[in-house]
Design brief:
There is one protein chain. The protein is of the alpha+beta class. The protein has a single domain, classed as Glutaredoxin. It is built from 5 helices and 6 strands; from the N terminus they run H-H-E-H-E-H-E-E-E-E-H. Strands 1-2 form a two-stranded parallel sheet. The protein has a two-stranded antiparallel ribbon with strand order 3-4. Strand 3 and strand 4 form a beta hairpin. The protein is globular, with a radius of gyration of 14 Å. The two termini are 25 Å apart.
């Protein structure tokens, strides 16, 4: 999620680091989707210095996340409904790859794993 330690220190930076390789492998756009509003996503994008390389997408109501079945209910921790951490390839509207992290980990959703799968 926006400004969380793992996503800010590892997840987004991995896609920035491998941006050129992902584009060379045929990826048209890189999206970062979080259950936050557009203002938070804009601020996070500036903080991460994405500079247009990653499209910071706000899923304010969690509709995208819920329709994908990737919601994570953290209400008991005071965070509401959020998104699980994942990476995904969508080719012409069809999900062709989904790398879903377990238990808040960061093992399979990184850019390096994605590059190996392309």
């Amino acid at each position: 999620g926006a400004f969380t330690p793992t996503c800010s220190a590892k997840h987004v930076p991995s896609y920035l680091e491998h941006y050129d390789a992902l584009k060379a492998a045929g990826i048209d756009e890189i999206w970062c989707v979080a259950v936050n509003d557009a203002f938070v996503m804009g601020a996070w994008g500036r903080d991460q210095k994405v500079n247009g390389r990653i499209r910071m997408m706000a899923d304010g109501s969690g509709l995208w996340t819920k329709q994908l079945g990737l919601e994570l209910d953290l209400t008991e921790r005071g965070l509401g409904v959020r998104s699980q951490r994942y990476s995904m390839v969508i080719d012409n509207g069809v999900v062709t790859q989904l790398n879903l992290e377990q238990g808040g980990g960061y093992e399979v959703s990184d850019a390096e794993t994605m590059l190996k799968q392309l």
